[in-house]
Amino acid sequence: MIPKSMLMALTWRDPEASVRGPFSPLPEDTGYWLRHCEGFRVDSGRRRLGVVECVAAEDAMDGAEVVAVRTGGLRSRRVLVALDDVVEVRPSECRLIVLSPRS
């Protein structure tokens, strides 16, 4: 049997933790979040595009920095999105808003 004080200590959550969002050394630094956004949800317009798989890879075609996004469910594929096409980074929601993907 677990003492109630230990049970409370193990299950207690800070009610303001969900309001503050994830910890960031520089919460307004977009460049920081662009390079640390693995796992973020990616939206393009009003639709969900996918999830960030890899950050700041080099596109062989034009040498631009890109974000690799895994799209789809059963038939998933990788879409490359240029960092220049990222419109907004929302670290508290773990989300990127982009213009349009490049295949």
Q: Describe it for me?
A:
With 103 residues, the chain is α+β, with helices and mostly antiparallel strands. The protein is 17% helix and 37% strand. It has three helices and six strands; from the N terminus they run αααββββββ. It has helices spanning 4-11, 17-20, 30-34, and strands spanning 41-44, 47-58, 65-71, 77-82, 86-90, 95-98. The chain has a six-stranded mixed β-sheet with strand order 4-3-2-1-6-5. The longest helix has 8 residues, at 4-11. The termini are far apart. The mean pLDDT is 75.
Taking Cα atoms only, what radius of gyration do you get, to the nearest Å? Answer: 18 Å
Q: Report strand %.
A: 35-45%
Described by the principal axes of the CA atoms, the overall outline is elongated
Query: N-to-C terminal Cα separation, in Å?
Result: 57 Å
Helix count from the secondary structure assignment: 3
Question: What does this entry show, briefly?
Answer:
The chain has 103 residues and is of the alpha+beta class. It contains three helices and six strands; from the N terminus they run αααββββββ. The protein is elongated.
Element layout with pairings:
Layout: H1 4-11, H2 17-20, H3 30-34, E1 41-44, E2 47-58, E3 65-71, E4 77-82, E5 86-90, E6 95-98
Describe this protein with a few key phrases.
103 residues; alpha+beta; 6 strands; 17% helix
